[in-house]
């Protein structure tokens, strides 16, 4: 416990402007991590703004990222929406620290872990139509090696995450995520790895892993990977 208290926040997380509650397991909840993280909410940064006013929002993101770095020992920056991948290149150039805006950045590594002639990657996302264009191209991935299942047609997810009613029932949402994964695997049995694009889905990774018997990667997986590169554990010397 003392080690956690003394450790500074190496990871900075930009939060989009949302009313969705962050459950344990969600990257927006500090209890998710065994190490401290620093948060910065970007006022007015909504999904619609990201797509409709991309370049108008960029200066806000840059300023928020700079403020995170000025407030402590933040040495890498992420955000809690996979669609922030739209800003990956610009943020890397302007913030000059490691930036990882989306769990989709893991796709090139996951592709190398499978045999593409026999296996594919399943992606569960918030809205499937958004992944079929620029976002996949941004990580040099094509639809040849991935299969996508969106949650936009799942009733509770749509209400909680897209319409943002302010209510989130974790049991209902978990059931919808499991249903979506089952549908995806039934449609594409050669899926050998699952990747969760939406940061809200990380709390259900374990249930998904147990149900599908497949490796599951998410936003939290990526944060742990980057944090390990920034804050190495000291082992006893003999």
TrEMBL record:
This is Aspartate/glutamate racemase family protein. It comes from Salibacterium salarium.
């Amino acid at each position: 416990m003392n080690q956690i208290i003394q450790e500074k926040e190496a990871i900075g997380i930009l939060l989009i402007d949302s009313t969705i509650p962050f459950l344990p397991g969600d990257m927006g909840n500090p209890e998710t991590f065994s190490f401290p993280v620093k948060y910065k909410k970007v006022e007015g940064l909504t999904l619609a703004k990201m797509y409709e006013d991309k370049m108008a929002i960029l200066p806000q993101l840059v300023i928020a990222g700079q403020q995170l770095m000025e407030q402590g020992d933040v040495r890498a920056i992420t955000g809690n929406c996979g669609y922030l991948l739209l800003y990956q290149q610009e943020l890397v150039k302007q913030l000059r620290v490691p930036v990882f805006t989306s769990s989709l950045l893991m796709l090139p590594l996951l592709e190398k872990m499978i045999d593409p002639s026999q296996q594919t990657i399943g992606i569960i996302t918030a809205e499937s139509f958004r992944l079929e264009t620029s976002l996949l191209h941004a990580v040099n991935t094509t639809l040849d090696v991935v299969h996508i299942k969106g949650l936009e047609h799942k009733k509770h997810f749509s209400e909680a995450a897209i319409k943002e009613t302010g209510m989130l029932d974790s049991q209902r949402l978990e059931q919808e995520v499991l249903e979506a994964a089952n549908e995806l695997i039934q449609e594409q049995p050669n899926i050998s790895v699952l990747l969760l694009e939406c940061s809200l889905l990380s709390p259900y990774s374990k249930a998904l892993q147990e149900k599908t018997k497949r490796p599951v990667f998410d936003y939290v997986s990526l944060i742990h990977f980057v944090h390990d590169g920034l804050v190495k554990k000291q082992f006893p010397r003999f």
